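Input record (one chain):
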Amino acid sequence: MTQRAPDPQKSSATRKTAAGAGSLLCFITTLLLAGCSTYGPARPGEKIYRDVVFAAPGGHKLSMDLYVPKTAKPAPVVLWFFGGGWRFGSKGYHVNVRDLTSVGIAVASIQYRMSNTAVYPAQLEDCRAAAQWLRDNGARYGIDAKRMGASGESSGGHLAAMLAATEGKTRIRAVCALYPPTDLIELGGLYARPGKQSLIDKFLGGTIEQKAALAADASPLNYISRSLPPFLLIHGERDRVVPLEQSERLFFALADTGVETQFMVIPDKGHWFRLDDAQFAEVSRFFQVHLAR
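The corresponding structure, as predicted from the sequence alone:
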């Protein structure tokens, strides 16, 4: 099912000037003030395994939290990647797909290296290591990692898309990306300030001009092919941190290539929001359909 977005020309004309350093700074400040942890007790019919170590690149231990439904058979799993400009955040914060366990889908919330520890592609390598660890070990936790999806918000949505781009639809069966950066060259240009490093510069280890090839390599828009799994893109209409155009361009590129894709534009929402009941129901349905078979 392909769901066409609103008129892209209308939003594209305004979004390029919408994002700015001030908006991003306010977003990060809000994230830090909100706190990094939303840990809570297990829900009925669910088992939680916290801080399961899956890799230790350079001696830097990385872990995941597993939320596993108590089902008769091993459950499919969705990998969740948190947002925060690849520099801030925690696997315990704002797990937007947390309630997938209520429909029999496990959630693995992944900690990956921040850009102050290692630059790209370290973050993608960590995501791939987590996926492979689940394929090798998931059965011990009641997880069927052959039925794997990926999801994330903001920079985490970017990593979910890149994971699917590098692993393909035989290994990642579906992706739900919330307000993801998809063209780092364009987005990096929006945030470029003389003498100052943006979060994208820190992620890449240099300015867009210095790291143009790496920025292109890290952009999901440059991986469009029929080998990609189905996508569900969700973006706030008033996003001033990652412009709506970033998701629009990915949506149209996927649809034009014949990749199954849906696009939900959320009116009156900016960057960084929780899914309401109706929006979560659509995400739940999307993963149930694509991880069932």
